[in-house]
């Protein structure tokens, strides 16, 4: 219950509980920028990850930046948000995927 001095009756505020503990989980599942393939970041081949991100970025009508920027942003977002929970081997694959993404977009 919240009481404001200028309001004579008390107002009850309901706070909706989030289904997830982290906001980044919600962004990952319901990104409004790219329609990603399921489990794209868990693949073991950096080239496949880069090509999948490129395809998603080029075919998205909801992105606000260039396809390259959108794809690289999504990859960086995933790496940064996974943090210490990301296995070292998979982090290396994702970091190599950045280089593959640069090659795919001819940004060497």
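Q: What amino acid sequence fits the structure above?
A:
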């Amino acid at each position: 219950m919240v009481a404001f001095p200028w309001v004579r009756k008390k107002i009850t505020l309901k706070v909706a509980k989030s289904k997830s503990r982290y906001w980044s989980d919600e962004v990952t599942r319901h990104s409004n920028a790219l329609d990603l393939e399921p489990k794209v970041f868990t693949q073991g081949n950096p080239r496949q990850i880069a090509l999948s991100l490129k395809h998603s970025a080029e075919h998205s009508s909801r992105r606000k930046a260039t396809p390259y920027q959108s794809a690289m942003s999504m990859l960086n977002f995933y790496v940064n948000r996974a943090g210490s929970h990301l296995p070292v081997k998979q982090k290396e694959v994702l970091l190599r995927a950045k280089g593959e993404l640069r090659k795919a977009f001819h940004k060497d």
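Q: And what stands out in the fold?
A: Helices lie at 23-29, 46-59, 67-82, 88-104.
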